[in-house]
Write a structure and sequence with these properties.
By secondary structure, the chain is of the alpha/beta class. It is built from three helices and seven strands, in the order αββαββββαβ. The protein has a single domain, classed as Double Stranded RNA Binding Domain, CATH 3.30.160.150. Strands 1, 2, 3, 4, 5, 6 and 7 form a seven-stranded mixed beta sheet that branches. Strand 4 and strand 5 form a beta hairpin.
């Protein structure tokens, strides 16, 4: 009897593991959101002039995606806003003369997406973080701080647009993770 139960358990475990695939439901924006506004990000870091470049990169990513019309804040169905809270450049490796050869650039941004019709945030990410480790510009294949920053904006903009368009409830932090209930007239 014990052998039969053990054999059955092994058989079902072996058969079942191939067929069980976790596929979470896609969480796209509600149907009433047809247009998006990207507010100018604010900058609470010590580094001057970061907010404009990040905002423009996010707008470029929305234009590349093309699923939603970009409009002014007054005309938009949804509004993306945020602020750069931290910009930390850290030397992490030195040569024998104590000259920095490798840097770590870490940028933290708070982002949120407002459903204007329902007047609530569909998602909020208070600490979206992107890190770039790069060699100094004086080394072969190295980057300047500006080049590293541009790469961070590229990654961050893609992450923000992807989270907004393809899965607003799929990341960590605060998210409603549901669409409004049409029975309650929330649409």
């Amino acid at each position: 009897m014990k052998k039969a139960i053990l054999s059955a358990c092994i058989f079902f475990a072996a058969c079942g593991s191939e067929n069980i695939i976790y596929r979470p439901a896609a969480q796209i924006l509600p149907n009433h959101i047809k247009s998006i506004a990207v507010k100018n990000f604010s900058n609470k870091s010590q580094q001057f002039g970061l907010e404009e470049k990040l905002t423009l990169k996010i707008i470029d990513e929305f234009l590349k995606d093309g699923q939603y019309k970009l409009v002014s804040e007054q005309e938009a169905d949804g509004t993306l806003s945020g602020e750069i809270s931290h910009y930390i450049l850290t030397p992490i490796q030195y040569d024998r003369n104590m000259v920095t050869t490798v840097y770590k650039l870490n940028v933290i941004v708070g982002v949120r997406f407002l459903d204007k019709k329902g007047n609530f945030y569909l998602w909020q990410e208070p600490a979206l973080q992107t890190t770039k480790i790069y060699s100094a510009a004086t080394l072969p294949g190295g980057l300047t701080e500006e080049q590293a920053r541009e790469q961070i904006w590229e990654v961050m903009a893609k992450d923000i647009v992807k989270r907004t368009v393809m899965g607003f409830g799929s990341a960590t932090s605060v998210s409603e993770k549901k669409l409004p209930d049409p029975a309650k007239n929330e649409n």
